[in-house]
Amino acid sequence: MVERKNDVQSKQKRHRSKKNSDAFLCYYQHYLKHDYLKTPTMNIDNTQSQMRKGVLEFCILSIIRQGEVYPSDIVEKMKTANLNILEGTLYPLLTRLKNAEFLTYRWVESNSGPPRKYFSMTGKGLAFYEELEATWNELANAVNTLTAPIQAADTLTNVNQ
Hints:
Arc Repressor Mutant, subunit A; 71% helix; mainly alpha
């Protein structure tokens, strides 16, 4: 009876051990499959995109602050400034700004199709814009301060060559 009990316990231990090693193997394969062990690489396109997204709202509000505007005009002005934006990105942003009561709009009949929605800034939107503008100026000054020594050194290097 004692031998049988030890035999059963031994089998149970082997089963648990196999079960644990199977679980570890499964976890390890998952770990490798998802590249957790690889060193992350920096992608310049992603970084540039994130930087542009950070100023997108401010730039759009800057355009609207100049006067009533149609969304395709915003796209064109952004493109002229080399900040390309798709209408699929613009419309949700305009809706969010309108829902926050920063923008208002009016419908204008069009000779060449459906009515057009023209956006303009509200008083609340202007106050929000002014806060963004102050933040932008602080950030731009900080970045210029931090990068100025590098730019000066690069200029001296290029002049001496």
